[in-house]
Amino acid sequence: MKTIQSPSEGLYKEKxxxxxxxxxxxxxxxxxxxxxxxxRKEYYDAxxxxxxxxxxxxxxxxxxxxxxxxxxxxxxxxxxxxxSFELTDILxxxxxxxxxxxxxxxxxxxxxxxxxxxxxxxxxxxxKTIEIPLSIHFSYELMSEVSRLIKEFxxxxxxxxxETACDMTxxxxxxxxxxxxxxxEKIYGVEITESN
Length: 196
Fold this sequence. Notes:
By secondary structure, this protein is an alpha+beta fold. The protein contains 5 helices and 11 strands, in the order βββαββαβαββαββαβ.
């Protein structure tokens, strides 16, 4: 899954109009709403605050907004660039200051596309491993067998609790999740609970 490491900015100028672009790594729609609200306040004097976002490892949650520009000339080109770079968990805002000369629909599409590409090109794109949490519950006698598996798969323990029995939670890379789960299931006395 590809996303950006940290926020970045870009710029495109055409016939006096200025297109300021901002890219953000995001996780939730609530986070997106907050960022949009802040940018609308900060750039209250701008003609348009257009945006697009993509969320989730499957890249199925997305939205684009033209904010008063002719339909399909702003939000869609922004989203198109997010798709071209195969990014997710990203919000891109492009703010337009009108320069007095109309750009036409083709000119607007190009401007929003180029401004977005500039912000992405200034960002550090990172490949994130998708991890799935897995929790196990077992008695102390099984500690050496459990430890052997932890070592074999180099698992990172994200939570552990030792009382009358042991509870551990791991974040396991998606590609080895089933294998690890099956191996824990083979240890008699280990209970598996998938946590969210």
